[in-house]
Structure formats: structure tokens, C-alpha cells
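Students often ask what a holo structure prediction actually looks like on paper. The answer is less mysterious than it sounds. You provide the chain, you provide the ligand, and the output is a string of C-alpha cells encoding the 3D arrangement of the protein together with 4-O-methyl-alpha-D-glucopyranuronic acid.
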Amino acid sequence: MFLTRVSAVVEIACRNDLKRMRVPILGAFLVCLIVLTIGSCSAKADDGYNLWLRYRPVENADLLQSYRAVLSSIVVADTSDTAIIVEKELQRGLGSLLQTQIPVGSLPPSANSLVVGTPQALPAPVLDDVLQMLRTVGREGFVIVSKRGEQPPFILIAANTPIGTLYGSFHFLRILQEGQTLNNLKIVSTPRLQYRMLNHWDNLDGSVERGYAGRSLWKWDELPATIDQRYHDYARANASIGINGTVLNNVNANPELLLPNYLKKVAALADVFRPYGIRVFLSANFSSPLSAQFDVEKNRCGGIGELDTSDPLDPRVREWWKRKVREIYALIPDFGGFLVKANSEGMPGPQEYGRSHADGANMLAEALAPYGGIVMWRAFVYDPEVDLDRTKRAYKEFVPLDGRFLPNVFVQVKNGPLDFQPREPVSPLFGAMPKTPLMLELQITQEYLGHSTHLVYLASMWKEYLDFDLHAKGVGSTLARVVDGSLHGHSMTGIAGVANTGSDREWTGHLFAQANWYAFGRLAWDHTLSAEQIASEWIGMTFGFHPTILSTVSSMMLGAWEACVNYMTPLGLHHIMQEHVHYGPEPSLAKGREDWTSVYYHRADKEGIGYNRSSSGSNAVSQYHPPLRELFDDVSTCPEKYLLWFHRVPWTHRMSSGRTLWEEMNYRYYAGTQYVSRMQDHWRSLQPLIAAELFEHVNAKLKQHYHDAIIWRDTCLTYFQKFSGLPIIPLP
Ligand code: GCV
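The corresponding C-alpha cells follow.
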């Protein structure tokens, strides 16, 4: 964003100057030359566009020499569209890493070639013992082996499908960037989850709900005629981390996207994404079959159909969806299916007709099933009629429906029971629907974690969730095992991340937010990877594998989430942010719908603070399995990170640190902001090693981050002090 803006300003300034001065043609020519020179310089500068796919030249001379020695040609033994992408990527990656063009060769492999292909395209002697390994990697996995003992020696990237070879090629390029030896490669990799999805909350008018990186990537007014290069680059970036599905539009869905002219645009995007292994899905508005008339009573427009109902049990409605689905598949043969937000935050749903979520989901599932499509039915519901405590509502509505969904339905559940707060316990729903495949919904965009201004590395948070033991089937019933299907034996498995991408030049609004997109994809592929390992991959591929950069940047990233929790909502506090924008603090918010206010959640008064969800309060603890239920229920055993989530505690409550609750809150708020100040110091220390534009971009973000973290700290402590009546205690 930043560089494009600078060169645009220079250009406009020059154009204006030319007009005013009416300079002779030669003068104009000279000015243009300067503009062009600046323009081309800025094109060369690192503007963040290339994400983690920079392929920085290998600097270590011995390593470079050893790589060049075993990589003398590229042989891609396949002719599919994906294979063309594979070949291009390997040429581009190896060319840049090894600073020499690696020629494309052909079969049989010559000495030191890099051979890539599927069993259908490769001769049996090339595959040899690899065939056995391929039996274990499924449709998308891959095998990478160095065949050093063969005559001639070569390296093989093999997979059962072309898309597997693309994943394998990206993996291979990462190995090179990490400086690993190529001598004894024997890598077998299979994704642990089947559906690895981005959910875009993009609207048809180009805005993005909770998006902080510019406008939507999808240029609906230009499609299908114009295919923006960014669509390819988006798909390439996703393929490099194994993402294989994208929901293009907001869950607050505009039914118009299902109109024929829009479906042609969707089909054009699907055509671009297909060779990268990415299937397109759409958010569907449940009222779509209704006629477009404005419904005065409900204060909203209807759908795009001609019916007077969208009752899922009405045969006309069922037929309407079947027709619509047929129409979609005629245009997009590998269409993935629908994501649905129903009876939530004003979105229509089956309950309007006295039907259940299962009735609604199954109607769509039935229409999609013949084509292999799926439904992702969201469990983000919080009807006040269901329970006084908002965090209990989804569980109460969905658990009775377990076992009533068709096999091609996921129930898609947010990680916590509330709404993507800086920290929540895991949603108890994950431990209570064994018969239903549950798709985990994470939020990559930082709605409640400082938008694209705060540097927060989310892999640390996601790992805490994935490792959370729900005890649904005894010890070891982690969220990861619920989601990967191993706990309850589901073969349909998936994860969704609400995307943080937009039209900004560097895609995500903050360079470090790229790390969250990257980490989401890597964890979706393999949730056993550690936050540290993923950070180190991303740092190295983004800034280079210089030891000082690696250690300094990872130390910044790895504590950033905990720091954010500390200066926003420490010790289990939640939902005390500004109304609507969800950026800064607003702990005093008391007006409006009760369960959208801050005071409903923190309940601070002279006596103490916190929401009593123990057995003496809302009893939300009862939604967890023993021994979690008892652990959370007892204030003396409840983990302090969830203390004020589950308990109302006096200001004088003694914490494990020996401090009182009030002192601990002060300590946490100050420690959080101090961390951000240290991140600034760390970053400044790297100035000589980081490209100037990237350095400045992050530096400016950190400055604002620190400023705004202090606002969080001071606003919250000053507000809570009104109740505690105790002095504010800065860190010594
Ligand atoms: C897309 C929160 C957000 C909304 C979002 C909603 C959801 O309430 O603030 O912007 O709507 O979650 O996940 O459906």
C-alpha cells in the first residue's frame, strides 16, 4: 500500500506541474523520465506483495554449491493445468534461490534432475519403492525422496494427484529456504484435515465486514470479463500453505450472489482457482427462495426467488434449492457447497417457520449431495430466549440436534463460546456433539485483537485451543482430535479461518498479519506443528534466515498474543471493547441490547468483578465434562487465565502470585503494554537487517500499537478503579 501511494502521489504532482507550467516537450519528457525511474525503483522495492514466497537467494556459498550440484534440471511429468503451475513455480523458486535458471528436462531422468509427477505420469522404475508410500498419502499428500543411490541420481516429488505434487513442490522450496540438506530426503506428508477453508466476509459492494486490509479482492463489476492477476496470486499463496477451499462472500449473505449474472462471475473465479486445488463455496442466505419484495414487518428485503416462504419442509422451497444447485453445478462442476448463518444476528433461518437448524441444513444438504457438495451450518447463535447467559445458548440449541444432520453437513463452531475474544475457554459444544462432524471456525482477521494495527501472532492462541483437552472421551480428548475426526471416527473433517486479506498491496494491512494467514494454512495442514516452528518458517521466508532476525522476531511474535490479552482483557475478562468497531476499550458501555454491553460481562462493582458462571451462578461450567466442570467451578482450582470468565471475585482475592486480584490486574495491564514497548525496541534493533520500506511500515504500526495499548490499559484501569477504590500501581 505505502509504496504504491508514494509513486501515485509523485505522478499526480508531476502531472499537475506539467499542466500549470506548460513546459516545453523536452522538459515534459525529462519529468516523465524521472517519474518512470522512481516508479521502477519502487517496483523493485519490497512492498510486501510477495508474502512468504520471496525465494531469497541462498547466501551460504557451500550450501548454494551443494544445491546447484543436485538440481540440474526440472522434469514435471504431467500435462495438467496444475502441472504447468508446478513447473513455473519450481523454475521461479529455484531460479531465484539458486540465482541461476534451472532448465526443464524430460523423462527418463538425467543425473541430478528434480522429477515431479503422479503414478499415472511417471514410469514404474522411477517410482519404485515410493509407490508403497503413496498408498498412505491420499488425494492431497505427497512424498519427497532423494534417490541418491540410483543411477542416475535424482530427487523425486510424487503424489497421487497433480495438486499433491504442487503441495510437495512448495514444501520442497521451503526446505531449500530453510537450508536443509537434500541428500537423504524421505518426506511423507498428508493433510490432517480434509476441508481447509478461508471464509471471506466480503460484501458485493466491495466492502469487507471486519476487514482491515482495504477493499474486497473480488472485483464483481469487472468479472467475469476481467481476471485480475491478484486472483492467481491469491490462489498461489493459498496453495503454498495447503488451503483448498474459499467461501467468497460474507456469512451475512446477500442473496443476489445466487443470481445467474453473479454465478457467472463466481464461475470465473472458480476457473482461476481450480488448478491451484481450491474449490469455491458460497455463503447462502436462507431467504433466497423468497420474492424480492421488502418485508415491512421484518424490515428487510426478501430473496431472489418467487416464493412466499423459505420453509425448509415446503416442497416448493426444496425444489427451488435443487434447481439453484443444479444451475450452480452446471457452471462450476466442482462447487464446494454452502456456508450458512441462520437465525443469528438478524439473518433469516428455519426457526422462522418453527423448524430446526437440522431441518434447514438437511434441506440444503439434500440438494448438494448428488454433486458431492457440503453444508457448513454455523452454530453462532445466541437467542436471549434460550438462556440468560449468552455463552450457554449455542450449546443448548445445538446439542439436542446431534445425530440429526445428514452426512454431508458440518456444524461450524467458533473456537470459544462467545465471539473471538482475545481469550476464551474452548466452546463446550466441541465436547458434546460426537455424532456430528464439527468444523472449527477461527478468526484470522483481528476483529477483537487490534485490527491490522496490533502485532499479534495468532498461532499461539490457536495452539492453546487445539491443545485444550475437552475430556469428552477421557484424558486426551483435545479439540484437535475432535476436529481431525480421530476422537469420534469422523472422516469428514475441516477448519475455517475468517480471512484477513484485502486489496492492500501487502494483502493483510500489517506485514505481520501475513504470518497469521500463513500459520492458519500450516496448522490446517498439520495441527501438530508448533507455533514456534511456524513462526520461524514465516520469519525466514519473509525476512531471511539470519540468526539475529530469527531470534529477535520470534521473540517478538511468540509473546505478542499473551501481551494483547494482558493489556485488553486479562484474567478471563471479555467483551469490554468499543461498540460496533471492536477496536479500543469501552468497559463502561451499558446501553443497547444487554448481551452486547460491557457491563453485562464484567459486572464490576464495589465488591468485585467477573461473571459468575459457576454452579452458584449461570452454571455454564456444567456444559463441560468432568473433571473440567469441577476444575472451572471451584475458584481455587479454576485456571487464572479464565478466572473472571467463570467467577465473580472480590478485589482482595489472593492470586497464585501472592498479589491481590486488583494488584494482579494492574500487573497484567502494565506487563502487556511493557511487552509492546519492548517489541518496538527489538524491531528498532533490526533496522540494519531489514529492507527499509518493510522496516518503516512495521515501525509505524508498532508506534500506533503501543499508543493504543496504553489507551486500553489506562481506560480499563481507571474505569475499574472507580469500583475497587484502590490505587493504580504501575510496574516498578
Ligand atoms: C459476520 C460478530 C461480528 C460480526 C459477524 C458475526 C458472525 O458478531 O461482530 O461482524 O458477522 O460475529 O460471526 O456472524
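Residues 201, 209-210, 250-252, 341, 345, 380, 419 surround 4-O-methyl-alpha-D-glucopyranuronic acid (CB under 6 Å).
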